[in-house]
Amino acid sequence: MKIAMIGTGYVGLVSGVCFSDFGHDVVCVDKMPEKIAMLEAGKVPIYEPGLDAVMARNVEAGRLTFTTDLAGAVDGADAVFIAVGTPTRRGDGHADLSYVMAAAEDIAHALTGYAVVVTKSTVPVGTNRKVAATIRAARPEADFDVASNPEFLREGAAIDDFMKPDRVVVGIESDRAREVMGDIYRPLYLRDFPLVFTDLESAEMIKYAANAFLATKISFINEIAALCERVGADVKAVSKGMGLDARIGGKFLHAGPGYGGSCFPKDTSALARIGQEHGVPQRITETVITVNDMTKRRMIDKVLDLCGGTVNGKTVAVLGVTFKPETDDMREAPSLTIVPALVGQGAQVRVVDPHGHKEGEALLPGVTWAHDPYGAAQGADCLLILTEWNEFRALDLKRLAQGMATPRMADLRNIYDAGDALEAGFAAYEGVGR
Prior knowledge:
Blueprint: E1 2-6, H1 10-21, E2 25-29, H2 33-40, H3 51-60, E3 64-67, H4 70-74, E4 79-82, H5 98-110, E5 115-119, H6 127-138, E6 144-148, H7 158-163, E7 168-171, H8 175-184, H9 186-189, E8 195-198, H10 200-231, H11 235-243, H12 264-277, H13 283-306, E9 315-319, H14 335-344, E10 348-352, H15 357-363, E11 368-369, H16 373-377, E12 382-385, H17 397-403, E13 408-411, H18 418-423, E14 428-430
Parallel strand pairs: 1-2, 1-4, 2-3, 4-5, 5-6, 7-8, 9-10, 9-12, 10-11, 12-13, 13-14
Helix pairs in contact: 1-3, 5-6, 10-12, 10-13, 12-13, 13-14
């Protein structure tokens, strides 16, 4: 199959690379010449474990190419995937579809034969019909179908998620489109991974519903964590006890500083907006958003309390600022709320993150970047763990404590035991929900 992938952001690049690894001929398109030049040079513009190796393998095999020429990529393609950004629109919380519609119009003028135009971007219900209307308005004679194929990729584990998915969701309206999409995903079907074929609207809704439910689990356990602190319970024990129930499951039941990233904040906001527009308010999702915002701010109070009520003139060493480990993504990360608040209250903040420096330097003005946790903690009054990178999980706590001016730890990911920290020389330890 010949595939054109419009957009080389996180979703587009990962999807294009993985489709080429299935054996399809894939052309990835982007309007930014500098990004295409980088990709052609074998450099990956995002941090995603394993992506560079899979990309290099398929470029060498001749199955994967990059271009700024959308018309050339679409010419003769069996499927054209739209994988452009849908950021939250300022003012109303809805998804900004301007990039999607611009791509649809460009595709309309480039089509030379039958193709399935597939929306890979996360879009509100009804968007695929708007894509179809846009193409028909631009090219009434165009021969095409539309399909909705939402992505379910976790940053840091995207290759594995694509190659071994829980399910592949495809919204279609014709047998012809079903055949094309079935051929594209045939390598997964042959290995018994579920392909869920449904209508356009259901496919669009599945993506939002799934992400909103996962975000709900995170906000739920963070509220339980706050209650655990008041009643003397341990949220880690509570999470384990809950998660062993097969009806609930343990994933996304880890208390912390709140969710962030490219999906949950944007998708919960968009789902809440969709509900408002259709007169069916999504009260649970709206509350999830509120609880997440409150959780981030509660973490600021934790640090202040640990430091005697103020951080003015004190040095805080921050371990991790990306929204999760194994990614360089800073979008909506809890650090973007917590760190500026500490800087604003007079703290001298030193930051360590294995891959967050590139984006974080512009997003976190007023901080000092350190090379390693021990250097960051030297002479500090508080050690703040925000992202649970593997390299932060087995630190020499005694060495950290000995190097600090006042050894205090705010472990907002609960990766250390309070007893171990105190025994190593920390004067105070504060976790979440413990």
